[in-house]
Every structure is written in structure tokens, then in C-alpha cells.
Design a protein that fits this description.
The structure holds two protein chains of two kinds. Chain A has a domain of 61 residues. Chain A has two helices and four strands; from the N terminus they run ββαβαβ. In chain A, strand 2, helix 1 and strand 3 form a beta-alpha-beta unit. By secondary structure, chain B is α/β, with parallel strands linked by helices. Chain B has three domains: 55 residues, no CATH class; 224 residues, no CATH class; 126 residues, no CATH class. The longest helix of chain B is centred in the N-terminal third of the chain and has 19 residues. Chain B is flat. Classes of the chains: A alpha/beta, B alpha/beta. Chains A and B meet through strand 1, helix 1 and strand 4 of A and strand 1, helix 2, strand 3, strand 5 and helix 5 of B.
Chain lengths: 91, 436
């Protein structure tokens, strides 16, 4: 019996990750809060712990306006000015 | 780099892959991190700190070149075309658990013809899998749901509406919240296609509501990739995720009240489908009120509840007035604008009714800190403005209405049901009326 496959073909993408830094020292590191509880507190704690281990890192705490929606152009612009992003997802 | 908790690993991996970054590094923390003492969360982070730094500084393998399109048809060697095939559907994770109609070449071709569009026409790209919802793929799922070819124009308009960013489908496809796109079909095609907006509008019954709503769910599952458990994380979900389609009861609309399509600027001959991300309907029983103010007091009371998403966010809610309630309200001279205004003013709860944690972590933080310093007796409602209460008339005789909260982050989207040339599909285009 011949039947059609109901799954949609994924839209093709060409994204490639950027090269990773060998060290985080002196880099601008963004901590991106998606507003899910308790991500804001988590990321501040993570920043404090990373400061102990990564001398000279330059942390930036950034928050989306809404966990359920894509980041705003303002947030995307801010992320272009950093070297590394840690994006935390709650629940 | 992603920080994630155990139940969400599959979902996040799938999303990264769909966005072209299958090798994006992540660190997994034990679930949960919400609703537990913050020191517990800190301890989980402390245990992962070295892994986080290591993954931020380790090379990421290049992603594979996008795979070529896979097979579109299957040849199955089966003995029993019913039971064996249903088992095959379940094994492949294609359905909703209920029996599916086999999408044979003949049935799919007939369904495509019903759309009046080329098979390869791309209607939308559905998150989170970023699956391409072509007319052909919509048709395959429509066959499996039990639709007839004349349902295709409604499905195409609805699938187009699903990706309007105002709706926030991305959230609906993966969230733990029990939200599902509700289809409200309005206009002359509701009669032609036998879409019920009267008694038993939410079903069950011998109407097209069930199969149209089911087709949308299969499209979200199979094309959008919102597979239950692995990707869609709804804690309990709700029964509307099997099928969730009604018609607006325009015939029962009180004189002077406009239906959704008229409110949104569509001509009388144009049928529309409105898509709105809703929870399950919450009944509003009022057999006693004989004034419009009385009915609205009961509606407002049902809307004033703490467990819904809406008070934390900026989005719409839906009020479906039964015809008798609508008639009582209108008889006292209230317009639909009056209804929205009164509900906005009355559907309020004192902040003190929320738990201290929800006050601190949500009410005082969200909505740009609007209630950052508000006293505990501040009255809070489900929406931020009266116009965010969508009101219409649905159902048959009886003293019941319905309140449907949403995920709180979305606005309804209305699309006209149009042919390829931009003209509206009309009842005369369906002379055999097999939808009935």
C-alpha cells in the first residue's frame, strides 16, 4: 500500500556556529535572561561564580521582555556587542 | 551555550537542529529549577560551573550540510489495511492516538484539488521543526484527519494565520501551559461547510468542526513537529488539542452587535477564520439573572481567577456569550463595547489573592514592573485594556456562556478565506455541498 508521509520537510538552514574562544579571560559575556523563574537569580549567581574562575571577564546581564516571544531587536543588537552568550531556560 | 533542565533536553535539541545549529553546546541541570528554594538552584549551578566554562571554550563541530529532501511517499507491505496501518502510524508517531484515514494518492490528490492552489505552494513554515506547510502536506494531514476537499480553503487560511507573530505559535507548540489554537469560522461558508456554531458547538456531533480542528492539530504535530512529551511539554494539555474548531453564531448576534469579521473590517460576503490560543472553555452558568448587568456580573466573576496566565502578561482573553445571555445583555441597551468595558472594570481580583511568591516573582516583575510598588489591595484583571477582551456569540438555547483564558502572550488573528486570485470562496463554489 502506498501512502503519503505527513511530516513537513524542514526549511533548509545554512547557519554555522562561530569559532569558540580558547579562553574567556577578558571577554564580554552576556547572560541572557528569558524571564522564566528563577533565571534572573540563576544568572547573577552564575556570573558571580564565573568571576572567581575567569579573571577579567566583562559580564553583561540582558533580559528578554517575554519568555514566550523572540528577542526584540534591541536585545539582538545588544547581543552583537558581546563575545559569548549564555542563554538560560527555566522550569 | 544553553542551560537547560532534564525534561527539556529533547525539545531544545530539536529546536537547535531546526534552526540550523544541531551542535550548539548545552549544559543540563537536574529538574526542576522553578518552585524550589533558590539555594537548591545555586547548588545545581555550582556543580556545573566547570562544564559551563569548558563548553564555552571548546570547539563546536561544524554542522552537517542540510540533508536532501526525504521521501514523500511510503510503500508498506501490510496484510490488514486497517489495523496494520494504524499500528504503523502509531509506531512512526504521526497521529493523535485516534484512528487515521490512510493518505493514499487518490485521496491526497482530491484534497489538493480542493484547495485550488498548486500542491507545492508554501503556505507557512511551522515552528518548532520549521516544517514547510505546503498545500500538499496540509492535504495529507487533512486526509488523515477525515476532512473533505472542500475543507481545504479553511485549513489553508488557518495555517497561514498560525504563523502571524501576534499569535505566538512558537510558545504554544512547546509550552507546559495547556494552550491550543482555537479556530472560529465566521460567515456564509459556515453553513455551506456544515461548521456548527450553535448547540454543541464544541462537539461532538455530525458536523465538520471535528475534522477541521483535528487536521490543524495533525498539521501542528506532523509538520510543526510538536510531538507530545518530547517537544510539546504541556503538563496536562487539554482536550481541545484533539480538535478545537467552532463557528461564530452570527444569526444569534443581537441587533446592532457586529461579529468578528465585521469588527475586523471584512465585507459581508467574505468568510473568515480567526485563530486564538486558548485554554479549555470554562463554563459560566447563569440561569437566574434577568438583567444585562446581572449576566455581566457573573461573566466577570468567572474571569476573575488567579490561576490563569493572563494577569501576568499582555494579551487577549475570549468570552463566548450564549445567545440567551447575549440577548439579555443587549436588551438592556449594552453594546459590545459596553460589554468589554464593564468586564474590564469588573473582572478584578485583589493582589492579596495571589501567593507571596507569585506576587514577588511575577506580579511585581512582569508588565514592565507596573505593580512593582502597588499595595496588596490593588485590583488586577486578566487583560491590560478593554479591547483585549474578545467577545462573540456562540452556542444554542440555554443559560450558559464560556470564558477562555489564553496563554497570555498572544492576540487573535483573523484571515479571510480566499481563492488563489484573491477573491473570496463563496457558497456557490461548493455546489455539491458534500461538507454536510
Amino acid at each position: 500500500m502506498k501512502i503519503a508521509i505527513p511530516e513537513g520537510q524542514p526549511q533548509p538552514h545554512t547557519l554555522q556556529p562561530v569559532d569558540r574562544p580558547r579562553s574567556l579571560e577578558g571577554l564580554r559575556i552576556a547572560f541572557l535572561d528569558n524571564t522564566k523563574a528563577p533565571v534572573d537569580k540563576m544568572l547573577v549567581h552564575l556570573e558571580n561564580r564565573m568571576r572567581e574562575k575567569v579573571p577579567g571577564m566583562q559580564p553583561v546581564q540582558i533580559a528578554k521582555k517575554d519568555m514566550g516571544k523572540p528577542a526584540s531587536p534591541e536585545v539582538m543588537q545588544a547581543l552583537q556587542n558581546v563575545d559569548v552568550v549564555i542563554n538560560a531556560l527555566g522550569d | 551555550m544553553l542551560l537547560q533542565t532534564t525534561p527539556f533536553v529533547g525539545m531544545i535539541r530539536n529546536q537547535a537542529k531546526a534552526l540550523g545549529m544541531p551542535n550548539l553546546p548545552g549544559v543540563v541541570l537536574a529538574h526542576p529549577i522553578a518552585g524550589v528554594p533558590i539555594d537548591t538552584v545555586y547548588a545545581k549551578l555550582d556543580g556545573a560551573i566547570d562544564e559551563i566554562i569548558a563548553k564555552l571554550t571548546s570547539p563546536v563541530p561544524a554542522s552537517e550540510v542540510a540533508a536532501p529532501p526525504g521521501k514523500q511517499w511510503l510503500e508498506l507491505d501490510i496484510e490488514d489495511e486497517w489495523h496494520d496501518l494504524q499500528r504503523e502510524f502509531i509506531r512512526r508517531g504521526w497521529g493523535d492516538g485516534l484512528p487515521l484515514i490512510p493518505p493514499t494518492e487518490k485521496r491526497v490528490a482530491a484534497m489538493i484539488a480542493g484547495a485550488g492552489l498548486p500542491a507545492g505552494h508554501l503556505v507557512s513554515v511551522l515552528t518548532p521543526r520549521m516544517g514547510m506547510a505546503t498545500v500538499e502536506k496540509i492535504a495529507v494531514n487533512a486526509v488523515m484527519a477525515g476532512c473533505l476537499p472542500q475543507h481545504m480553503p479553511v485549513l489553508v487560511a488557518a495555517v497561514d494565520a498560525l504563523v502571524d507573530p501576534r499569535l505566538s505559535l512558537k510558545n504554544m507548540q512547546v509550552t507546559t501551559h495547556p494552550v491550543s489554537p482555537l479556530l472560529i469560522v465566521s460567515g456564509p461558508l459556515t453553513q455551506t461547510l456544515n461548521i456548527n456554531g450553535s448547540t454543541h458547538a464544541f462537539g461532538p456531533g455530525p458536523w465538520s468542526n471535528g475534522v477541521i480542528g483535528r487536521a490543524i492539530r495533525l498539521i501542528l504535530l506532523n509538520i510543526g513537529g510538536a510531538k507530545p512529551v518530547e517537544i510539546s511539554k504541556a503538563t496536562m494539555s487539554h482536550p481541545g488539542r484533539y480538535t478545537f474548531c467552532i463557528a461564530e453564531n452570527e444569526a444569534a448576534m443581537p441587533a446592532g452587535w457586529k461579529g468578528l469579521r465585521a469588527e475586523r473590517g471584512f465585507a459581508p460576503e467574505v468568510s473568515t477564520v480567526t485563530v486564538m490560543g486558548c485554554e479549555a472553555p470554562h463554563n459560566i452558568n447563569d440561569h437566574e439573572s434577568i438583567t444585562g448587568s446581572g449576566v455581566l456580573t457573573m461573566v466577570a466573576g468567572t474571569m476573575a481567577q488567579t490561576g490563569q496566565n493572563n494577569p501576568y502578561y499582555d494579551g487577549e482573553v475570549l468570552v463566548l456569550l450564549g445567545p440567551e445571555h447575549a440577548s439579555t445583555i443587549a436588551a438592556d441597551g449594552f453594546t459590545k463595547d459596553d460589554v468589554r468595558r464593564i468586564l474590564f472594570e469588573q473582572a478584578l481580583i485583589p493582589m492579596s489573592r495571589w501567593s507571596p511568591e507569585n506576587i514577588q516573582r511575577r506580579l511585581r516583575r512582569f508588565l514592565n514592573g507596573r505593580h512593582k510598588d502597588s499595595p496588596l489591595d490593588t485590583l488586577i484583571g486578566p487583560v491590560q485594556r478593554a479591547d483585549d477582551i474578545v467577545v462573540t456569540v456562540v452556542g444554542g438555547p440555554g443559560k450558559h456562556s464560556m470564558y477562555l483564558p489564553t496563554n497570555g502572550k498572544s492576540w487573535s488573528v483573523t484571515r479571510p478565506i480566499l481563492k488563489q486570485d484573491g477573491s473570496p470562496w463563496l457558497p456557490a463554489d461548493f455546489p455539491t455541498s458534500e461538507g454536510k
